[in-house]
Amino acid sequence: MSSVMLIILAVWFVALFSGAPIYVLMALAGAAFAYVAGIDLIVIPQKFAKAADSFPLLAAPMYILMGSLMNSSGVTLRILRFATVCVGWWRGGLCHANILASVIFAGMSGSAVADAGGIGAIEIKAMRDAGYDGETAAAITAASATIGPIIPPSLPMIIYGVAAETSIGNLFIGGVIPGLLMAGALMLMVRAMSVRKNMPSMPAPDGREIWEAFTGAIPALMCPVILFGGMMTGFFTPTEAAAVAAFYALVVGVLYRDIKFADLPRIVLETVETTGVLMALVMSAALLGYALSMSRLPQEFGAWLTGTLSSKVVYLLMVNVILLIVGCFMEAISAMLILIPILVPPAMALGIDPTQFGLVVVLNLMIGTITPPVGIVLFITARVANLPFDRVCKATMPYLWPLVAVLMAITFVPALTTWLPNLFR
User: Fold this and answer.
1) Are the CB atoms for 154 and 401 separated by under 8 Å?
2) Are 360 and 350 a contacting pair, CB within 8 Å?
3) Mutual orientation of helices 312-327 and 400-412 as an angle, nearest 10°?
4) CA dist., res. 244 & res. 235, Å (int)
5) Which listed residue, 37, 170, 284, 390, has the most CB atoms within 10 A of its CB?
6) What is the DSSP code (8-state) at residue 204?
């Protein structure tokens, strides 16, 4: 059966270039295997229904709704103002503020796309007004947006946790240190480039400015505190935290008087549309995963790998190479849903911690969002900055190095991803 599945996957890969939606191709590949293998086709709606009937997956539309509410409110402007007051007076200050704002926004949105398209538009305008060139503003905005899905909450981690049957709570907690390391590494890069390029800095704020920026940003700053604190104390689960986050985002928007009840139908409709595409991906990936399992292709691949490789680090390095290449050509969640059934079993057989492996996978694919030719964050940033795609790509390339350095750190040092989750067990 594995040979049949390989043929179907080969045809499916060629069909990727036809322009058809990827969830349609995954569903067709799974259905084709079931038909050829003589499996009762009733399994198709069964797998669709089982994939959709997932309690952890309920968090996805709630976090999507929260991101839409945050982008529709004035919270992004207040976050940037607070970040500017904190670090804007450093050399290259607005680059540092851009990164710090992404860290704060990451604790609310959990999405690189939401970061780039939401707070990114405000960051790029502010940097241009302060004298930064458009390429620098777009590049640091794109690079810092990758922090969004690493610091909890994170939509990609929810999808990974559901697909790989891994604790979403552990993934959330395990992402804190890597996310902060990403911010620190990008700031070090900015520091070096700011001296070389003689980047401007903002005037040092006085006490009144600091206080006004802090008090204005308190509701936004409390969001990650409430979410993280609630999950750590066991007051609510990661799935329940999504509903709390969406409600809190609505309250913040109303308090800032930036969200009107007339805006809610539009925001809900945007959430439904995004969730619909996501659920189509999840359901079709479940069918394709079932087909792969029945063909025993992942089992044979895993047996071959574990028989060939005995080192966890070598396997992780191989996965890094595969995912960095795949991330250049495929959207992150789609790539994750396709590759998880193949890559996770060998990792577990080699004894790799599931939290570490999940974060390695997610970080790889987030780096993929800022690598051409299909880096979705690059496209969004180029559109927001009104710059040619190739110029944004070229300006962003140097910022890949600090992100890859963090990826290597969590590959070679498991404790960077497992220490916090183990501490809270």
Assistant:
1) no
2) no
3) 150
4) 11
5) 284
6) P
Q: What is the CA angle 370-266-236, rounded to 5?
A: 70
Are 30 and 338 in contact by the 8 Å Cβ rule? The answer is no
In this predicted structure, what is the pLDDT of residue 5? 65
CA distance 209 to 367: 36
- So what's the pLDDT on residue 18? 67
* Residue found by looking up tokens 């040619």 in the block: 388
Answer whether 0.85 is exceeded by the pTM. no
Burial profile 228-247: b = 16 or more Cβ within 10 angstroms, e = fewer = bebbeeeeeebbbbbbbbbe
Contact 63, 161 (CB under 8 A): no
Inter-residue contact 249 to 223 (CB < 8 Å) = yes
Using a 10 angstrom Cβ sphere, with 0-12 exposed, 13-18 middle and 19 or more buried, the burial of residue 156 is: buried
- The 10s digit of each residue's pLDDT in 232-271 is 777 777 777 778 878 887 887 777 777 777 778 888 887 7
pLDDT of residue 360: 95
Q: Angle at the Cα of 268 (from 262 to 272), degrees rounded to 5?
A: 155
Chain segment 264-282, per-residue pLDDT in tens: 888 888 778 877 777 787 7
pLDDT reported for residue 411? 95
Q: Which two tokens stand for residue 111?
A: 């999405």
Radius of gyration of the chain from its Cα atoms, rounded to whole angstroms = 22
Cβ atoms 282, 52 nearer than 8 A: yes
Compute the residue count for the chain.
Answer: 425
Contact 332, 366 (CB under 8 A): yes
CB neighbour list of residue 240: distance below 8 Å, 6 or more residues apart: none
Task: Please answer whether residues 46 and 256 qualify as being in contact, where contact means their C-beta atoms are separated by less than 8 angstroms.
Answer: no
CB atoms within 10 A of CB 149: 32
Helix (H, G, I), strand (E, B) or coil at 304: helix
CA contacts within 13 A on the Cβ side of 264: 10
Check if the beta carbon of residue 202 is closer than 8 Å to that of residue 89.
Answer: yes
Among residues 59, 53, 74, the alpha carbon closest in space to that of 111 is found at: 59
The per-residue DSSP string of 213-236 comes to HHHHHHHHHHHHHHHHHHHHHTSS
The tens digit of pLDDT for each residue in 187-224 reads 999 988 887 777 777 777 887 888 888 887 787 778 77
From the number of C-beta atoms within 10 Å of its C-beta (0-12, 13-18, 19+), residue 2 rates as: middle
Give the span between the Cα atoms of 296 and 303, in whole angstroms: 10
What's the token pair of residue 227? 């979410």
